[in-house]
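Cross-check.
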Amino acid sequence: MTTLLDELSDAPISGLNLPMPREARLRRLAEMLIANPSAKTSFTNWATSLGMSERSLSRLLVQEIGMSFGRWRHQLHVILALQRMARGDSVKTVALELGYENASSFVNMFRKTLGKPPIRYLAEHRATAVSGMTV
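Predicted model, tokenized:
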């Protein structure tokens, strides 16, 4: 798990990063979400399970990682999705594995996060990588 956390936080996927919290409770939250990215647990329930109020959790997240819970979770999903799709998994498979009801809702989140649908993003990313290679 520690290796995965380190790899995710260092993943150079076109400017995406996944800042990892250092505070023990937030680190535990991050580990739980990485282990089960499809978890449907509400923010209120996450806060309760960590022994915090929603407001305290929100403030601590912004202080530790510089973003909201929702934005961090979307970035986690995008990074995991890109890794899986690069291995050949379909958008639909990835969407369902990440807990989305359908591929359309996942594609919508992906587009809002990166400005392009996943297939186009991957195609452009691969084309840039290939054109940047030297022989």
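The domain at 2-131 is CATH 1.10.10.60 (Arc Repressor Mutant, subunit A). The helical segments are 2-10, 24-35, 43-49, 54-65, 69-86, 91-97, 103-114, 118-131. Passed to J.P. for a second look.
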